[in-house]
Design goal:
Helices cover about 40% and strands about 10% of the residues. The chain is built from 12 helices and 9 strands. The protein has helices at about 10-15, 25-30, 50-55, 80-100, 110-120, 145-150, 180-190, 200-210, 235-245, 275-290, 325-330, 335-350; strands at about 5-10, 55-65, 105, 130-135, 155-160, 195, 215, 250, 295. The strands form 2 sheets. Strands 1, 2, 3, 4, 5, 6 and 7 form a 7-stranded parallel beta sheet that branches. The chain has a two-stranded parallel ribbon with strand order 8-9. The radius of gyration is 19 Å and the shape is globular. The relative contact order is 0.14.
Length: about 350
């Protein structure tokens, strides 16, 4: 079944983890044996080859570079100019992948339809389509840079990531969007960019909902019902997004799937983390909405974690092909399953880009 993954940090893996994503997952793992600079070394799950094997022909692929002020202890760049330059390096990697036929950027409805037709016709080694997204807006030095990014193909943006940001407060912080955030939202709306509500803290989320009237989705966000943490959405937030005709992508980071996860200590085996918890999150959103139209897949695989922090029954991203069977076992119809695996996000894009 065709799969749309609404959140993959492909360029971050290529540029910061030094992974050649044209290799197989096995070859990348082999090259990292003995490395200890990051917990997920030799435990990666994503490559372009694995995406093709899993029929994941379309994704939202990120640029990400946090700007941190001196008092902020989170890792990041010391100026927004450095952060901007980092995102430009990431963009250069996507362009390089396009030049060798591995990927293709999707920026409008015509390109989307052409790409979907290519995958439907099963052309050999069809490029992976990607919609460019910016995770956290700290690299946007001034609003003029947002328009420049739009011209480069940016089509979705999350105002915040972790901690306090320039335009909003993100995960594990508390605060609103301020005047800069409101100005950013107006420009997002003017450019018809998709606002990604993922990572907004509760205060920033609700302040954003009060002033923003454009398209909004959540690329990778699970339900607070299962893990009571500010990173997840409450039922009230989910209902707000449903009312705005949004789609929420379910992530596969173990700490977001089961409660009481301790980073670096807990293991997927010990905490019994499987794709079943993904189905639980999907089902919860479907129950809240009364249909299968507002939830999809947004794995965040290799988003700073690997096999040490993802479902035990997923070895590579290709194993997303197990999800339709699990949904069927929960009583979901073929139409429902197709909606969840790809059509909801694709339909969202078609409405925004009409």
């Amino acid at each position: 079944m065709f799969v749309f993954d609404a959140h993959l940090d492909l360029s971050m893996n290529a540029m910061e983890w030094n992974r050649d994503l044209t290799w197989t997952v096995a070859d990348i793992r082999k090259s990292e044996v003995g490395m200890a600079d990051k917990l997920d070394r030799a435990r990666n799950t994503v490559s372009l080859d694995a995406m093709r094997k899993g029929n994941i022909g379309l994704c939202v692929a990120t640029q990400i570079a946090r700007y941190v002020k001196r008092e902020n202890q989170l890792p990041g760049w010391n100026s927004p100019h450095q952060a901007w330059a980092q995102t430009q390096g990431q963009l250069a990697w996507y362009r390089a992948m396009e030049e060798i036929g591995e990927m293709v950027q999707i920026r409008n409805l015509a390109e989307l339809n052409t790409h979907l037709d290519l995958w439907k016709n099963g052309v050999n080694k069809t490029p992976i389509g990607y919609i460019l997204s910016l995770e956290g807006a700290d690299s946007i030095i001034t609003l003029e840079y947002l328009e420049r990014s739009y011209e480069q193909g940016l089509r979705a943006i999350g105002p915040a990531h972790y901690g306090p940001g320039t335009y909003a407060h993100g995960t594990d912080s508390v605060g609103g969007i301020g005047q800069k955030g409101k100005a950013l939202l107006k420009e997002i709306e003017r450019l018809n960019l998709i606002l990604d509500a993922t990572h907004l803290c509760d205060v920033s989320f609700w302040e954003t909902m009060k002033v923003y009237n454009g398209p909004v989705w959540a690329s990778h966000n699970n339900c607070r019902k299962f893990v009571d943490h500010n990173r997840q959405f409450s039922d009230e937030q989910i209902r707000e997004l449903i009312g705005r005709q949004s789609v929420i992508g379910i992530a596969l980071d173990a700490w977001m799937m089961v409660p009481n996860w301790v980073r670096g200590v807990s293991t997927p085996e010990g905490m019994d983390v499987t794709l079943t918890q993904m189905i639980d999150n999907i089902d919860h959103i479907c129950q809240l909405s009364g249909n299968s139209l507002h939830v999809g897949i947004g794995t965040d695989l290799d988003g700073g974690f690997g096999k040490e922090q993802c479902p035990t029954d997923l070895d590579t991203i290709a194993d997303l092909q197990e999800v339709p069977k699990l949904l069927s076992e929960r009583g979901y119809s073929e139409t429902d399953i197709e909606n969840i695996m790809s059509k909801n996000f694709i339909g969202f894009l078609k409405k925004v880009w009409k």
